[in-house]
Specification:
By secondary structure, the protein is of the alpha+beta class. The chain has a single domain, classed as Sandwich (Immunoglobulin-like). Helices cover 26% and strands 32% of the residues. The chain is elongated, with a radius of gyration of 22 Å.
Length: 232
């Protein structure tokens, strides 16, 4: 199974077109009001209200008819940088009481290390794109345990696991078409916590307002199911 968001270019263009239309409408309405042409300004305001109601209704309809999805280890989740480029998958999960390094780091509870593969799928690009690097959009990473508690990666642990890297951006490395790499995401979990699933999503301020985007208001998420540590 490969999960690929549908109609990504179309929904981005819909969002941008709506923003442009509303911006032009507000500008024209303000100018008309300044010229004391209140009837025309009011009609523009009414038209913009209709546009926003239709857009908001479409966004909520897509969200309320969506649901959470679960991907098995090795299955791919694509992220659309306008067209679908980057695919992520969970490769393995393991535990550790401490991490080696110049300064060993001991877990407060236990470290859970999730190895994630990032792949720039060359089949999703135009033949005219070229071989330039693609820089991923910012990502949000959360692990959910069996009690429903969400955990973020441990910055201290990831500094030890990946010396010289910025632990705040563990999936920010650029890629060329066909390239891939793996990243160890390290979580410091309470000893009693049992990890169940991992969420990797886009960290974009406008995402809640894009129709059918995973992060749009009330929309279901696509999670990675985590196998038992040591198994894949």
């Amino acid at each position: 199974m490969i999960f690929t968001p549908t109609n990504a270019p179309a929904v981005v263009l819909l969002f941008l077109g709506t923003v442009l239309l509303v911006g032009l409408g507000v500008t024209c309405g303000a100018w008309l009001a300044w010229r004391r042409r209140f009837t025309a300004a009011r009609r523009i305001a009414e038209a913009l209200t209709v546009v926003l109601v239709i857009y908001g209704g479409t966004l909520l309809a897509h969200s309320f008819t969506s649901s959470d999805r679960s991907l098995e280890p090795g299955q791919l989740k694509y992220f659309c940088e306008i067209d679908c480029h980057l695919a992520y998958s969970v490769e393995s999960v393991r535990e550790a009481a401490s991490l080696p390094g110049p300064v060993p780091v001991a877990a407060k509870g236990r470290f859970l290390i999730v190895t994630v593969k990032t792949w720039f799928d060359p089949n999703t690009i135009s033949p005219h794109r070229g071989n330039g690097e693609l820089y991923p959009n910012p990502r949000t990473i959360q692990l959910e345990d069996s009690a429903g508690v969400r955990h973020s990666p441990s910055l201290e642990a990831e500094r030890a696991a990946l010396p010289g890297s910025d632990p705040r951006e563990p999936l920010a490395r650029p890629l060329r078409p066909g390239e891939s790499y793996t990243t160890d995401l390290v979580f410091d979990l309470p000893a009693s916590a049992h990890a169940t699933r991992l969420l990797i999503s886009e960290n974009l301020a406008v995402a809640p307002f894009i129709v059918s985007h995973e992060n749009s208001l009330f929309h279901g998420k696509t999670w990675f199911r985590l196998p038992a540590p040591g198994n894949s």
